[in-house]
Design goal:
single chain, 228 residues, alpha/beta, 32% helix, hydrolase, AB_hydrolase_1, AB_hydrolase_fold, Alpha/beta fold hydrolase, hydrolase activity
Length: 228
Amino acid sequence: MELIKKQTELNGNTFNYLEGGDPSALPIVALHSLGNSATSWVHVAAGLEGDYRFIALDQRGHGESVRTDTYSFEEMREDLLLFVDALNLERFILLGHSMGGTVSYLFSQQYPARLEKLIVVDTPPPFPDEPIEIPPEPVEPLPFDWKALQSIMGQLNSPNPTWWEKLSAIITPTLIIGGSSSNIPQDKLREVSELIPDCKMVTVDGAGHHVHHDKLPEFLTILNNYLD
C-alpha cells in the first residue's frame, strides 16, 4: 500500500498526514511516538493483508504539522477528534505507539463510540516512577518541536491518575503489543491488559520499544491476525 502525503486544516492549523488504501474501506488511523512522524508507519501500511484505508497523522509539533505554543496528551487527543471529524471518519481502528499510544488510550476513554478496535504498541499510560531527566536542547536542527518533548516528558513525570483510573471504562476491543527487550516495563502492559475488559496482550520476543521497526514481520503477523 502506497501512502500519499496530504494536509488538512484543523482550527486554522495545518496538519500533515499520509493516506493510502481503499477510500471506502474501514479506516486505520495511526499515531506515532514522541520525536517521530507519520512516516514511521510506512512499512506497516505496506504489510497489511486486508483492505483498509490507512491514515497516519503527524501529531502537533511533529513532521510537517503545526508547531504550537502548548503541547499535551489531552491536546493531541482533541487534535485527533478534529482530524477524524474533518475526514468524516465515523468509526475507525486506532493504532498508537508510545506517545501515540497514550493519546489512543485517552481517546478511547473519552470517545469510545468512534472506535472499532484499539491497538497500542509498547506503552501503558504514564505512571509514577523515577523522574525522567529532560535533556538540554540539541544545537542541531530537529525534525520536531523541542517544546513538545519538554511538555510530554513533563507529563510523564507528573502523570494524571485518572488516565489509569479510566482504563476499566474502555469498552473497545483492545490489543497491546509489547517488546520483550523494551525499556518499557512489560508488567505494566500486563496490568493495563487486565484493567481493560476486552483486552489481549502479545509480547514480541527480541523486540525493543520500537516493536514495528525491530521485528516488522512478527509485528505484521500479530497485527494482521488481530485485524482479520
